[in-house]
């Protein structure tokens, strides 16, 4: 989880009231894990789903509302004169949105917090800038007359030059990637010769998603800011933009938010979406396990609005979708330590599946290493590798956990990727669940990777399993992703297909980041009993 450090005096000015010496009960109600609480600083772990608490702006706002110092703010935006043209955006990173925030009052601590938020969002929600990255620019440095109209282009450039943020020397884009810390860290996200850049009136504002230009950096004198988000997943980008602009607004005594017309997307941003959830007290009671008094007041303490039979989540509360989320907020405000105690029902150890244990022992005896993976996985990766649409998570906290895997193959390839640098030959297996459209099934999967690995390597494992378990099988050539055509086979026991084996096509190995030739075997556990 993101670890955040804030100054207590900064929190007080954002909360608009004094904070008690022991903040822990309130911080716990906000789902924060306190690492250190001193006389001047607070360090805490924020849950991934509370992106608004990744910096002092959101935490100060939440504390102020919870303690009754201020009302939950309502953020609205008006149409501005800044436009963002994305019609020439690079195809591999095609989306960009923008927003304008006016009348800021910044100091060193405010700037530190905003850049902390920018980075935490890009890591936690952007998968280290791969699907979302954020940029901030001083509009008055870009053009003092920007309010009369300004067009910013997000486009692909074959080359460019700028002074990178934090440097004094002008560099080419290629030099930015080779010589700067951020260039070395994130350069793999950029295709050379197709550089994603923000440009206005012939001036290069940034090389996205690497570094902004020093000329337009945000500092203590900045009053008006242009915010951009670029990436590959529009819905996540729009949520992150809402969090960023509402946090910036906390640094202004008179915040003004302006929408930016996005040419090429037929929309204006930020969206500033207020999400309504029906306030079903019976559903909240079922989730909580008992009836809470004054649910409306508890939800207001957590920063939600209550409008009749609806609870309304502000734009920065991107974690609220259902009555389960309302119950969680109400319980947090009520205090989990106040929940009535009751005796737990009798429990037992549960049943143990000895056959699965037996499969693991067989494969271990063959010299394979067992791996354990989550059933949650990157949904886009599954679609790219297998060509099937997995069961998706409604509100994923991370892109890497956005779907339920329908096969062990993607998980096994990720395991190979993780171990290929340490081992010249990777031999791993997993006995684990997969989730299909209508059921959950258990599979056993094997991956072997190395310089001279072929179909024969996993074929030998299959033969060993058949001899030990006492079944006969036949192989029938199949054409199926992610295997090389002519180098894949269905495994047939009796008249039933029970699995598949094959050599993974180099194209799909590259998508995962596997550098070794790899063969995979996957079998249905129930068919082997």
From TrEMBL:
EC number assigned by the record: 6.1.1.20
Molecular function, one GO term: RNA binding
Subcellular location as annotated: Cytoplasm
Domain of life: Archaea
UniProt keywords, alphabetically: Aminoacyl-tRNA synthetase, ATP-binding, Cytoplasm, Ligase, Magnesium, Metal-binding, Nucleotide-binding, Protein biosynthesis
GO biological process: phenylalanyl-tRNA aminoacylation
Domain B5: 272-341
Main location: cytoplasm
A single GO cellular-component term on record: phenylalanine-tRNA ligase complex
A Pfam entry, by short name: tRNA_synthFbeta
Cofactor(s) this protein requires: Mg(2+)
PROSITE patterns reported in the protein's UniProt record: B5
Similarity remark: Belongs to the phenylalanyl-tRNA synthetase beta subunit family. Type 2 subfamily.
Protein name: phenylalanine--tRNA ligase
Lineage: Archaea, Thermoproteota, Thermoprotei, Desulfurococcales, Desulfurococcaceae
């Amino acid at each position: 989880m993101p670890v955040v450090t804030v100054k207590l005096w900064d929190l007080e000015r954002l909360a608009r009231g004094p904070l008690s010496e022991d903040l822990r009960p309130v911080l716990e109600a906000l789902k924060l894990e306190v690492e250190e609480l001193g006389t001047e600083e607070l360090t805490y772990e924020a849950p991934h789903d509370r992106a608004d608490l990744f910096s002092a702006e959101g935490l100060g706002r939440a504390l102020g509302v919870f303690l009754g110092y201020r009302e939950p703010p309502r953020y609205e935006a008006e149409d501005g004169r800044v436009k963002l043209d994305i019609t020439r955006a690079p195809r591999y990173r095609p989306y960009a949105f923008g927003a304008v925030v006016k009348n800021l009052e910044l100091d060193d601590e405010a700037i530190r917090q905003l850049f902390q938020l920018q980075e935490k969002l890009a890591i936690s929600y952007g998968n280290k800038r791969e699907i979302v990255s954020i940029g901030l620019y001083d509009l008055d440095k870009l053009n003092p007359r920007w309010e009369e109209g300004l067009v910013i282009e997000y486009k692909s450039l074959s080359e460019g030059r700028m002074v990178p943020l934090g440097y004094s020397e002008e560099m080419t884009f290629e030099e930015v990637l080779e010589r700067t810390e951020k260039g070395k860290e994130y350069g793999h996200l950029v295709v050379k010769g197709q550089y994603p850049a923000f440009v206005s009136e012939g001036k290069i504002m940034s090389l996205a998603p690497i570094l902004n230009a020093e000329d337009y950096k945000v500092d203590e004198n900045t009053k008006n800011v242009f915010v951009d988000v670029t990436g590959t997943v529009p819905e996540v980008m729009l949520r992150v933009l809402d969090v960023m602009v509402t946090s910036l607004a906390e640094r202004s005594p008179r915040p003004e938010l302006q929408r930016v017309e996005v040419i090429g997307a037929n929309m204006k941003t930020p969206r500033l979406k207020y999400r309504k959830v029906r306030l079903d007290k019976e559903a909240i009671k079922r989730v909580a396990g008992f009836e809470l008094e004054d649910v409306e007041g508890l939800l207001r303490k957590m920063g939600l609005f209550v409008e009749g039979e609806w609870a309304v989540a502000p734009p920065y509360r991107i974690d609220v979708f259902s009555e389960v989320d309302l119950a969680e907020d109400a319980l947090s405000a009520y205090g989990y330590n106040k929940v009535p105690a009751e005796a737990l029902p009798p429990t037992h150890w549960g049943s143990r599946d000895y056959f699965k244990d037996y499969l693991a022992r067989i494969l271990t005896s063959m010299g394979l290493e067992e791996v354990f993976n989550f059933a949650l996985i990157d949904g886009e990766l599954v679609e790219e590798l297998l060509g099937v649409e997995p069961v998706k998570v409604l509100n994923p906290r991370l892109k890497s956990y956005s779907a339920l895997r329908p096969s062990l193959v993607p998980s096994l390839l990720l395991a190979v990727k993780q171990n290929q640098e340490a081992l010249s030959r990777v031999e791993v297996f997993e006995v684990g669940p997969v989730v299909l459209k209508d059921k959950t099934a258990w599979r056993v999967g094997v991956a072997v990777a190395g310089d001279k690995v072929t179909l024969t390597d996993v074929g030998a494992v299959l033969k060993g399993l058949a001899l030990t378990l006492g079944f006969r099988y036949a192989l029938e050539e199949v054409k199926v992703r992610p295997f090389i055509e002519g180098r894949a086979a269905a495994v047939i026991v009796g008249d039933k297909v029970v699995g598949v084996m094959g050599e993974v096509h180099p194209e799909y190995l590259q998508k995962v980041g596997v550098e070794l030739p790899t063969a995979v075997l996957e079998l249905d556990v129930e068919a082997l009993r």
